[in-house]
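Cont'd.
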Amino acid sequence: MSTTTGRADRINDAVLLLGFALGIYVLFTLVSFVLGLDLNGTVNTLRRITFLSAVYAMLVLALNLQWGYAGLFNLGVAGFMAVGVYTMGMLSTAPSSTPPGLGLPLPIGILGGILAASLVGVVASLPALRLRGDYLAIVTLAFSEIIRRTYRSPVFQEFTVGGLSLGTGGSRGMSLPSNPIRSLFYENPTEITSPPSAFGNAVFSAAEGFGIQSTVVEGWAWAIVLLLVVAGIYVLLRRVGNSPFGRVLKAIREDELVASALGKDTRWFKIKVFALGCALMGLAAILWRIGGIASTSSFMPIQTFYVFVALIIGGAGSNTGSVIGGAVFASLLFEGPNFVRRVVTELVPVGNAPNTFFDAVGALAGLDPTPLLAYTLSDVNVSALRLVLLGVVLIYLIQNRPDGLLGHRKEVAASVDLSERTGGGKQ
Amino acid sequence: MAQREDVNPAVALVRERPLVVVFVALAAVLGIDLVRKLANGGVLVADLATFLWDGTILGMSIGLAGVGLAMTYSILNFANFAHGDYITAGAFAGWLTTFLIAGFGEFALQALVLIGGPLPISTADLGISVTATPIAILAGIVVSAATTAGLALLLDRYVFKPMRDQRGISLLIASVGVALALRYLLVYVFQASSRGLTAGAKTPSFQLGIGQGSLPINAHEVTLVVLAAGLMLATHVVLKYTKLGTAMRAMADNEDLARVSGIPTERVVRATWLLGGALTGISGYLIALERGVLTTGLGWELLLLIFAAVILGGIGSVYGAMVGGLVIGLASRVSLVWLPESFIIVAAFAVMIAMLLVRPQGILGGVTTV
């Protein structure tokens, strides 16, 4: 890729990302202010937004490699995420906890989780070699459901292999190893009651001065680690995309027949793309869930659709778009409605919500919209309407902006910038 | 292959389609094992009969629900992920009507319209069953058909019609959006709680004695199986012997050719949604009737099984959907002979994936004709 435009693009992307992040932070700081949160609450709100944005950015980047680059319609994202998390848990959870794990060191667990997700991705890609787009979508969705139901099955709740007992916890889920970021702040990171280390003590007491709790500090540190991982994945995928390998992927997406006519064994490329993409999905899910519990309810097909919506918002095919799409989805579509609910209930006294939709609508006859508003703003209804909004956004985007926010940009498939050649004379 | 003449056909089969051989061998082993288990009493004949009957019920539900999906799949060339939620919408519309008719005057109007849910109604007091309240049930079926057909037409007009010229994947994504919006609008209005529908005590049922055990059969199961078979037969007649059916088959075969031969393609598309939607709504109503329980996730939870049936039968083949439904239903229930209950859905999906590997065009596929 020749120099000037490449660098300009990169600078533009960086400015775009930073500007966007700043915008989101300002918005949510204002929201926290309206909600009357103290500094600790505000910082924690921003932490949550950052954390979720980073997780979705990773997932979207991985899916973008498969769909945006190679045109493989993988609807099994949730399943590959589950494989990563559960394998990590089974390898690294202490043998004493219920369900027991193998108690291996965490790096081995994480690596094992990533490898397992990658391996399952390869298995899932085998049908992909012979199937059309919509068949592939259904098969991968079925695949993810097979995975989820297997982890949920009481058969694997606790089992013994070769004298070692381990398990998935079935429908109760399994507790995962503690978050590795704790080793930065605590002397004995695996214990909840551990005293802070010298560094931890210094940081915590400094934060205490601003009224910020130690858990928020820890959370932010983890969010920053995740942002660094996002940056790493971004660079990796950018390099993959601009390599000869990436150009074949784009060729497969545009016209597989042409790619194979040029002597490329497209089947191998598809398998590799599945292996790499699914490995990244496993990694993202591990970083998302670690320190908490793994439960099959986190890996329902809806999780896959979340990632797809985020990808379509950003625009399939663009890595920068993927990151922005992940952040827009996580902050505005996923978390946003709940904040809207809190802001509106803060500003408008709506009173108690009526029991049913018909009580709420009935009040409209008396020209009183507050019961309907109260009903709409109740906890359960906001989370239902959030998904309605998601559906409507999806339909709107695919009808009117199928290329997303940044997908319209030309992805140069040649190794030299052809547009620059025509201008002649330029450096 | 040059050396084909001097190779034994069996050897050639193993070489060219090893997967087929593996799956056939697996099926044979399972079949022999089943006979052995029946002979030594590991599985009672009555148990097997129960699995087969349950499989038939599930298969007929899936098959009937799949007919509508296969129709739109073959004519509009996209996998409609909203199909499951059309089923749910049809079931809600129909059961709302049944509740209103069966309980009018005796229960609060609001509770009836919400089918219980946030304002629970005792199903024993309401006393709905095929024999006790046949008119309410019939009205429910009619309303579920009409509502779902209307809904399908409406959504086609505003979501799918503007996208007629786009690829199948774009339409698929739009249909995911429709599915989410539709399901959670139902949750918003009706609330997510699971609701009881029929009165068990008023539903005629009997035990069919087989060997040392017995097979329980009730009237709602029979209603579902009989009506589903009847509706599939009616669909067959429409497709085979009416002008509309001919036009639909022509369009499924080759849309451009159909258009230049003077078939009004847009009208055929509308008729397809109308017919497919009505069948889908009825299937939702009947499935809820047989289960006696209605949730907002009803259709979505069935959707993958329906896709499995449609794919198994050969996408776009309506008869394939019927056959595929039965195969999926029977396979998942009979798998209980070997597998714990938590794996029956897994078994159905595994059958679908195996099928796609050995015969991607489906049992009755090959030509994507309705």
